[in-house]
Each structure stands twice: as C-alpha cells, then as structure tokens.
Specification:
Layout: H1 2-62, H2 66-88, H3 98-115, H4 126-156, H5 160-169, H6 177-196, H7 199-202, H8 221-232, E1 239-245, E2 253-260, E3 265-272, E4 278-283, H9 294-307, E5 313-321, E6 324-333, E7 336-348, E8 354-358, H10 360-365, H11 378-382, E9 390-400, E10 406-416, E11 419-426, E12 432-438
Parallel strand pairs: 7-9
Antiparallel strand pairs: 1-2, 2-3, 3-4, 4-8, 5-6, 6-7, 7-8, 9-10, 10-11, 11-12
Helix pairs in contact: 1-2, 1-4, 2-3, 3-6, 4-6
C-alpha cells in the first residue's frame, strides 16, 4: 500500500515537473516570437521610411514655393527621427553602423535647421540645393542596399533572433546574411558621409552616447575600489566586488557591488576605467520617514559635489517623490550656466544622505569653453517673452537645441499664476529655443 502511494506521489511529481517544464518552454518560445516580431516590424518600417525619405527629399527639390519647402523639410526631419528609432530597435548594438546613423543625423539636422528659418528672408542657397541633391542621390543608394537585405530576409526566411544569437556567441560573427548586408550599407555610406557633412554642424555636435572621450590614466580594479570608498565615505566593514565591463568597447568601466553590513545597504556603482570617474550610484537601502526638508537636502547635495571636486555647480531643479528628493545641478563658467554639464542626485529625506548619483551628462559634455558675446541685449530677449509671464530671474546659459548644438541663450525664470516657467531665448537670433514648466520647491517667488 505504501509502495503504491509512493509510486502515485512520484507519478504526480513527474507530471508536475513535466507540466512546469512545458509551460516554461512555451513561455520562452512566446518571448522569442514576440522579440522576432518586434525586430521584423522595426526592420520593415525602417525600409519603408528610407523609401519615403528618398521620395520626400526629391519632392523638396522639385518645389518652388517657399511656403511648401519648409513643411516638406520638417516632414523629412520627422522621417529621419523615426528611422533612427527603428535602427535603435534592431539587434545591431555590436555592429559598427555609426556612419549610417551619422548620415541620418546629417539629413535630419540639415532639414530641421533649414525648415525653421525664414526662407523669405534667407532662401535656400545654391550650395544648399546641391547638398539636397547629393542627399537625394545617397539616400537612393542606402534605400537600394536595405531593399536587398529585405529581399534576402523574405527569400530565405531569415530571422533577426539569429543575429542576436550570433552576437551572443561571437563578437565578430561571419556568414550571417543580415549582418553582412548591413556591413555593405555601412561601407557604402562611409564613401560619401564625409563629403556630405556640414561643417557648421559638426563643430557643435556633442557625443552623448558614451564616455570614450574622458581624460585621465587608466585605473586598476583595486584603485576603483579605493575611489568608491572615498567617494561614498564607506565604512571599513564594506564588502566590495568589482568587475571590468565593456572590454571590447572604448568606454570601459568598472561595475562595483557594495554591501554595507552596518547600514544593511546594497549599493551598485559604475566607475570609468579611464580617469576613474564615478558615473552612476544607486543605494537600495530602505528609507525611513522624512526628517530633512528639501532645501537642506539640496545643500547636502552641493556639499557632496564640492567634496568630490565637482566645482562651480549650481542647483537648477528639484522635486520630491515620497521620502526622496531628486536634484539637478549644472556647472557654471564665467557666470554662465552650462546645462549640458549636469549631475542628477537622489537624496534620502530621512537623514539627508545620497542614495542616487548620475554624472554621465557631465562627463560626456565637460570641456573648457570659449563663451561668445551675445548679439542681442537682455532687454531685446525679454521682449520675446510672453507678457503673461512675470519674470523673476534672468541670466545667461548654454543649452542644447533641437539639433544637439550648444547655443548661448538668455535664461528667464518667471511665474504665470501658480506655475513657474523657464524660458530660453537665443542670444544671437532672439528665437525662443526652449520653454519648460518647473517643479520649483526650493525657491519661492511669492
């Protein structure tokens, strides 16, 4: 009887294990199918967008009316943005396709910059028409190559999941039709991308995708651990593990896992191999009820930055989420705020300690700049502000515009009703570059 019962339990166990294995296998397959569908959608949308891009540039070349050219170029800009988005969704992260992405960026930048200016006062020049013609011809080349890849995908029923698996097994996979097709696209784009690049744009482009350009000597794993101890003021009991990641990439960094037994904290941190700069910190400790106000927390954040040699920083924005304050600080040079050089921090409002830190924007944008003189006065810039906004502060600032160019602006902070706004007016053209509603909890303008 006992034997029969044991056999019954064993049978149920085997059936249960089999069912669990089946459901897990089914779930994994469903995830793979969903991923493949997303890859296929992004690729075929990209193919369609490159067709459309070529046609729309051609339409622009055929137009005579200035009132038609501007909206047409805005449409071209929108298509390049969508194409960029779809390229980013493909499993090509280890395939160097920067020339293709740069080419799309050049088309988008040129189109947007031309579309937003007054073409009645500044019509397209002969050089700009020639550039459009060249972009039209080159976009046809890319269109044709991508169409070849699409044909191979259809003809041979190729799967994008195989591309991902190929990269998982080998950093430089060979004999994959999709990868080889995109390498051909990249090679062809390389032959004409330099000729198309607009010097007025490349001088101002800032690479925010990585930290390859940070300065300094390489640090060892042991040095990275010492940097973490000093940066976070860790106790001697802290247990730290460090691992170098991104070994095939230019912007390599150490990922540190830190356990602090005294505070029961688990901290994750990234430090660049070159220069040993802290990039990112997150402390997952439990936060107790609030005892520190937002103003005091912001002061703590500024002191933390000063102690760690982030000099001339200024608080620009703050907000509160439950018992955590989130603060953004930017650097100042010659009295001018440099918004691209920003540091974001999370500060616990139970004791005012730092529980989150990100300096990626600061490190990727950091530079000694020659700040130009504005071409218009602050009074002229103020006249371009909506009269319903009561201006409380004004200063000069450098921001990134929609073309990812650094531009000198007059920054105005003002109130309208119960809302606070930040308005940036281009210090050369008087154009409104940006307007933003602020969560201002540190300063009060009443």
């Amino acid at each position: 009887m006992i034997k029969e019962a044991a056999i019954g339990v064993l049978a149920v166990g085997i059936l249960g294990t089999s069912y669990w294995g089946y459901t897990e296998h089914k779930a994994k397959n469903e995830i793979k199918v969903q991923a493949e569908n997303n890859y296929q959608r992004a690729f075929h949308e990209l193919t369609y967008e490159l067709d459309l891009l070529h046609d729309k540039i051609g339409d622009t070349l055929a137009m005579k009316s200035k009132s038609s050219i501007s909206p047409a170029l805005v449409e071209v800009w929108g298509i390049t943005s969508q194409a960029h988005s779809n390229v980013g969704q493909l499993p090509l992260r280890l395939l160097p396709i920067n020339n293709t992405e740069e080419f799309l960026t050049d088309i988008g930048d040129f189109s947007y910059r031309t579309a937003v200016r007054d073409l009645d006062k500044e019509p397209l020049t002969e050089n700009e028409y020639a550039k459009l013609q060249k972009l039209y011809e080159n976009s046809a080349d890319i269109q044709g190559e991508i169409r070849k890849v699409q044909h191979m995908v259809f003809e041979n029923k190729l799967r994008w999941m195989d591309v991902e698996l190929a990269y998982a097994k080998d950093q430089n996979p060979k004999n994959n039709a999709i990868i080889d097709g995109f390498k051909t696209v990249e090679k062809n784009v390389m032959t004409y991308s330099d000729a198309n690049t607009d010097p007025s744009l490349t001088d101002f482009k800032v690479n925010r995708s990585n930290l390859a350009n940070v300065k300094g000597e390489k640090v060892t794993k042991e040095q990275a651990i010492d940097i973490a101890k000093k940066f976070l003021e860790l106790n001697s009991t802290a247990q730290i593990k460090a691992q170098l990641t991104g070994e095939k990439l230019k912007d390599r960094y150490y990922t540190l896992e830190i356990r602090e037994p005294k505070t029961n904290s688990e901290i994750c941190m990234d430090i660049t191999e070159k220069g040993g700069y802290p990039v990112w910190v997150i402390d997952s400790r439990a936060i107790k009820p609030q005892k520190v106000d937002l103003n005091q927390a912001s002061i703590n954040g500024l002191k933390f930055l000063e102690r760690n040699k982030f000099s001339n920083m200024e608080l620009t924005e703050s907000s509160q989420y439950d018992t955590v304050g989130v603060f953004t600080y930017v650097s100042k040079q010659d009295g001018v705020r440099i918004y691209p050089e920003s540091v974001t921090m999370k500060i616990a409002l139970d004791d005012g300690s730092i529980v989150g830190f990100s300096s990626r924007n600061y490190l990727s944008a950091f530079a000694k700049r020659t700040i130009p003189k504005p071409k218009i006065s602050v009074e002229q810039a103020r006249n371009n502000i909506n009269s319903n906004i009561k201006i409380m502060e004004e200063r000069k600032a450098i921001i990134l515009n929609k073309l990812n160019q650094e531009v000198l602006c007059y920054e105005f902070v003002g109130i309208r009703g119960n809302d606070t706004y930040q308005v940036f007016i281009n210090a050369d053209t008087g154009m409104e570059e940006q307007i933003k509603k602020l969560n201002v909890l540190v300063e009060n303008y009443d």
